[in-house]
Amino acid sequence: TQAMCLSNLVRVSHHRKLLRYIVSSYARLRGWSETMCTEFVITKLNQFEHRKATQKRIKCFFKP
User: Fold this and answer.
1) DSSP secondary structure letter of residue 9
2) Which pLDDT tens digit goes with each residue over 26-56?
3) Contacts of 28 (CB under 8 A, 6+ apart)
4) How close are the terminal C-alpha atoms of the chain, in Å?
5) What is 20-57 written as a DSSP string?
6) DSSP state, 15?
């Protein structure tokens, strides 16, 4: 599905400018809305980074 394809692009790069360029090019080739796809991937990247930061804080909190 479109969401699955875009979710796989989240871990390509954490540099927002580069990721926007890659996603917009990919969406253009697939015939999808570039704006919608870019917003979707950036949102998923923010969620991914937030989850990783939370896991890191929890891990440091319970460190022996």
Assistant:
1) G
2) 999 999 999 999 999 999 999 999 999 898 8
3) 34
4) 43
5) HHHHHHHHHHHT--HHHHHHHHHHHHHHHHHHHHHHHH
6) -
Does the predicted model carry a pTM greater than 0.85?
no
Query: Using CA atoms, how far apart are residues 64 and 58, in angstroms rounded to an integer?
Result: 12
- Amino acid type, 28: R
What's the CA angle centered on 24, arms 5 and 40, to 5 degrees? 55
Q: Which two tokens stand for residue 32?
A: 């999808």
User: Computed over its alpha carbons, how large is the radius of gyration of the chain?
Assistant: 14
Q: What's phi and psi for 31, nearest 5 deg? A: 80, 25
